[in-house]
Design goal:
By secondary structure, the chain is α/β, with parallel strands linked by helices. The protein folds into 3 domains: 100 residues, no CATH class; 187 residues, no CATH class; 168 residues, Glycogen Phosphorylase B (Rossmann fold, 3-Layer(aba) Sandwich). It is built from 18 helices and 14 strands. Helix 8 packs parallel to helix 9. The longest helix has 24 residues. The radius of gyration is 23 Å and the shape is globular. It starts with a helix and ends with a helix.
Amino acid sequence: MFNNFINYLRVRVREHGFNEFLLESINETERNIFEVETYKDLSHNLIDDDSNAFIYRIFQSTVDRKILRKLKSKKLIKKTDFYLILILRKLYYFIDSLKLLFFYHNSFYLLESISGNIHSPKLVITMTKNKAREKNLENSKDFKIIDLLVRTNANTVSNYNEIDSIRIGLKTRLKCFFFKIKHPYIESSLIIEFYASKIIFTKKLKLLKIEPKNSQVFIREGIAQVTRSLMQCARELAIPTVTYYQRIILGNITFVPRETSKVIVITKKGLPDNFITYDAEIISLNDNPYISWRHLSAERPNQNIYGLLVGDENSRYLQQKKIDQKILERISKQHKPKCIIRPHPQEMSKPHRVEYYESLARIYNFVEIDTSSSAEDFIENVDIVITYVNSTLVDEALLCKRPVIVVKKESETVNQKTIDIASDFCCVVDSEDSFRLALNLFSSMSISQLDSIWNKVLDSLDFKENSIVDIDNLLMA
């Protein structure tokens, strides 16, 4: 009973949480309009550095509020629910503000891991988020890699050494508090972590006595506020900053950090029309050094094992349940099917979502749940990827010679650039018949047919199977 009550409060306070109990929401066209207009407004008008570090959170919250008002105007949400959400959110923001002043961590610790060529005068400073994906930085032969990690406890982390710590004083807490008043929807824990990181990063970078011409701060995508604080500190010390984007097809909603001096992309083929880079240099690799796609393309199970990417970034779990059931019912009609479901790793930290996915495995005996941190392990074990989510794994699957079936949800648009680039290797389906035909088509393809179509995909991307860009090529780009 108590857990149900806590969950009741949680979904009404959290952004997009209302989608968890609404049977119907606004359509994708309306959502896209809100997202694009918010993106353009924030990209051009959000000039305060500290606010810009939280641009993704500000974007999410702004879109959330627009959707909530639209739901009320279209009478898709009860007035009682609407006003209850507003009241509970204001109460939560007030309590969170008090926690920031009196209860959040006093101490922050800076950890460091040194790898690559530790004797090289050329230095790369980074802050990795996904250790499994970004481990290949350690293989650099030309650069000394310093990987920084900020934590709120002194517990040991494998391959990292604690090198510094700070205590948050009243002055910093007040600064955080006034920022919280300006942006009440941003969690206090994120705000205090950001300002603590700025203090500890600035101290570290000054101690390194960096030679800018031989150094750079390198981050992937620049979503997290802590990585953006590192970039701000680097800019203030005239250290070049590089942002790397993993996606083949970047979405229209891509906030390039203002502090970046260079943007590296896998290919320029899929850049959105409104890709705002603030005059940063754009470099195309025509390769993806972050995944062993050449190796994985040669290693396929050839057993018609389906990989299903699932989830909903906007918490529309009731709608997700329907589409999951439709897809699995269709797969169940295939000959001796096997399906590996991969939720987003963050979902698997939520007990109610873990319970949902485990229930799918119980209902459908051909289903396994992939909980590994490695995308490569998932791709290696499947022949065909099925998805209705916007995921980097779609791009990686195409590179690894795995056909992709995109299940189009109602009132949803698909990224036509992906379809154009993917040639006949990616298929969009919007009915049970078209889904069945796509499954049968890709399941029956011979190795030579797959090779022929896959080579067309590589050609459309200007990728060369024998022209390898390694991690040092990336860092020197």
